[in-house]
Amino acid sequence: MQTGGGITMGRHVTVNRLEIPKMTRSALNNTYKCQASNTKLVPPAERSIRVDMLLKPLSAALSSKPKQLISNQEYVLACNVEGSVPETDIKWMQNNRPFTKGKIKLINNSSMVSSVLSFRPHPDDDGTILKCEGSNPRLQNSVLEDSVIMNVLYPPQVTLSLGSTLNPDDIKEGDDVYFECHIKANPREHRITWSHDVSIGRGPR
């Protein structure tokens, strides 16, 4: 490698500088060797140094993005983060809050770190954003992310109540009474049926 001439710092002392502008990540683990000789009578003296670097991740990606999830069925998603050196931090978030459901397993190899999430979606997860974030914890502003909107399918959840404007302790004969049926479902309900005095072995009356 080409360098400038040495600078004399004192009697028998010379400093020679090697300058490498805009070092890229490809220089990680490169070894540079300085060799000095003053006579052919003895072998040259040498010293070497290995380049260590802090690198941001190059990518963070979910292994799959299911279009539909069925409530209470187990799913496995992996978040793969590449290029973060020497450490990788992977977080799972739901609507920008830590995702605490399920189990997480970390798999590490030489070029990629994977966080494997096993979970069972709940009806309350429907419409929320599940996101994985990969970063180098020793570098600021190094976060990369990937996300999926959870479309959770679940059977209707039904609640029945007396009309909200009625007082249950003040209903008299001849009063008009109404009930409110609240339905939460995905996909949306296609039929609502009301029955009165249903008993085993008999149809609605």
From TrEMBL:
PROSITE patterns: IG_LIKE
Keyword terms of this UniProt record: Disulfide bond
Domain annotation Ig-like: ranges: 57-151, 156-205
Keyword Metal-binding: no
Gene3D superfamilies (alphabetical): Immunoglobulins (2.60.40.10)
PANTHER family given in the database record: SIDESTEP III, ISOFORM O (PTHR23278:SF26), SIDESTEP PROTEIN (PTHR23278)
Protein name listed in UniProt: Ig-like domain-containing protein
Organism this protein belongs to: Anopheles maculatus
Classification lineage: Eukaryota, Metazoa, Ecdysozoa, Arthropoda, Hexapoda
